[in-house]
Amino acid sequence: SQKIEQNSEALNIQEGKTATLTCNYTNYSPAYLQWYRQDPGRGPVFLLLIRENEKEKRKERLKVTFDTTLKQSLFHITASQPADSATYLCALDRSSGYALNFGKGTSLLVTP
Amino acid sequence: EPEVTQTPSHQVTQMGQEVILRCVPISNHLYFYWYRQILGQKVEFLVSFYNNEISEKSEIFDDQFSVERPDGSNFTLKIRSTKLEDSAMYFCASSVSVLGGGGDTQYFGPGTRLTVL
């Protein structure tokens, strides 16, 4: 079955540095991959979508790469700020439809 | 900016009782979803709904669950006989997906925290 793995350990970085989060998947070839942000007690908020034929996508301080050979996506936040502290979720399309399968998420803490 | 709304924000119920969770998706969206998140665990897909019928459901979505779009704006999730393990945050989401093909952004509501005692 489809498996999505994200760093289970929290990532602590200093303000201004670049945060890099990893999403690995197995047993599937997704058509697209999405990254969401989730704050405690809140619903996921869409950040970026990258399709299988795209290598890289950028939006402001965010960058996503998608390597379908390695079955991996990297999510970068440059010039990180304390307000970026949250859990970041990787999501892949389910092979059977348009719904999403989520990874467990990586918690990011940016300290001043 | 349009947003998905959900009511109530918190529902406490006794085991065996029926609950209905309500959602108002974004008005021009055509696909609707329910997900749940047990505390400390990942967000899990339950069901998707399109054109007034279920388009996909997960193995979690068994006979105790049902969904309905009773009017032009609301989308509901009913749990017929709640169990302790149904305690979770339930998220409604919607997406445009006019032409299909997937890949559309899903907009999530703030969630309903269901506590089954």
Write up what this structure looks like.
The complex is a heterodimer of chains A (112) and B (117). Chain A is built from no helices and eleven strands. In chain A, a hairpin with a 4-residue loop joins strand 7 and strand 8. The relative contact order of chain A is 0.33. With 112 residues, chain A is an all-beta fold. In chain A, strands 2, 4, 5, 9, 10 and 11 form a six-stranded mixed β-sheet that branches. A five-stranded antiparallel β-sheet of chain A has the order 1-3-8-7-6, with no helix packed on it. The termini of chain A are far apart. Chain B contains no helices and eleven strands. With 117 residues, chain B is mostly beta strands. Chain B starts with a strand and ends with a strand. In chain B, strands 2, 4, 5, 6, 9, 10 and 11 form a seven-stranded mixed β-sheet that branches. The model of chain B has no long low-confidence stretch (mean pLDDT 92). At the A-B interface, strand 4, strand 5, strand 9 and strand 10 of A face strand 4, strand 5, strand 9 and strand 10 of B.
Distance between the termini of chain B: 37 Å
Report the end-to-end length of chain A measured between terminal Cα atoms: 41 Å
Q: Using the CA coordinates, give the radius of gyration of chain B.
A: 14 Å
Largest sheet of chain B: 7 strands, mixed
Oligomer: heterodimer
Q: What's the total helix number of chain A?
A: 0
Pick out its properties.
heterodimer, A: 112 residues, 6-stranded mixed beta sheet, 5-stranded antiparallel beta sheet, 0% helix, B: 117 residues, mainly beta, 7-stranded mixed beta sheet, 4-stranded antiparallel beta sheet, globular
